[in-house]
Structures are given as C-alpha cells and as structure tokens.
Amino acid sequence: MILNRDLRDRLETAKSTASQSGDEGTKMDGHLYLSQRSESPKGLEKLEMEAANLQSANEDQLRHIEILEQALNNAQSKILKLEEELSKKQKYVEQVERLQKALAQLQVACEKREQLEQRLRTRLERELESLRTQQVSA
User: Fold this and answer.
1) Cβ proximity of 76 and 83 under 8 Å
2) How much is the pLDDT for 21?
C-alpha cells in the first residue's frame, strides 16, 4: 500500500511538472526525436553491415561445407575401390592357397610313386640277378 501511494505521488508530481513545462517538454521531446532519428540511420547502417558480414561468413561456411562434402564423397569412393581391390586380392590369395595345397598333395603322391618305383626296380633287379645266376649255373 505504501508503495502504491508512493507511485501515485510520483505520478502526480510528474503530471504537474509536465503541465508546467509543457512547451519545454515538447521542445525536449523534439530534440530527443531528432537525435534518435539521426542515430537511427547510423544504427541501421551498422546493422546492415553486420548482416552483410554474417551473410558473407555464412556463405564461406557453406562453401567450406561443400568442400568437405566433396572430400568425403571422394574418400568414400576411394574406400569402395579399395574394398573391391581387397576382395579381388583375397580371392587370389584363396586360390593360391588352394593351389599350394594341391601342389603339396601332388608332391606327396609323387614321392610315394617314386618310392614304389624304387622298390619295384630293386625287386626287379634282384629277380634279374637271380635269373642270370640261374642261367650261368645251368
């Protein structure tokens, strides 16, 4: 309540002061209006410059984003090519491994065959020697 009275008193004082200095207030309002009006174009110009700077920075960022997107696309393309190459090389590696296993099996089979041939040769040479001995003694 005390606050309301205080505010009312101030309002009445302001009204009476305003009515007493009616012409002075109008003059001051005019000066204030003119000063604000002269500052307004400066402020507007300043805001326009800030807006232009922000728009320029935004355009720079958009160009930077486009460059980064292009770099990303190039990197992804290279990754796909490298993955395809890797897949081909893995197939070659698998084929080489199969061929190496087949070669190892062939080598084992060849060694067994050579051993068999050697035993057969040895046996045939003994038989031949035995036949020669029989012929000489007969």
Assistant:
1) no
2) 56
pLDDT for residue 35: 55
Q: Which of 71, 98, 78 is nearest to 86 (CA)?
A: 78
Mean pLDDT, residues 82-86: 98
Q: Are 18 and 25 in contact (CB under 8 A)?
A: yes
Q: What is the pLDDT of residue 39?
A: 59
Mapping DSSP onto H, E and C, the string for the chain reads CHHHHHHHHHHHHHHHHHHHCHHHHHHHHHHHHHHHHHHHHHHHHHHHHHHHHHHHHHHHHHHHHHHHHHHHHHHHHHHHHHHHHHHHHHHHHHHHHHHHHHHHHHHHHHHHHHHHHHHHHHHHHHHHHHHHHHHHHC
Please state at what angle helix 2-20 crosses helix 22-137, rounded to 10 degrees: 120
Per-residue pLDDT, averaged over 88-102, amounts to 98
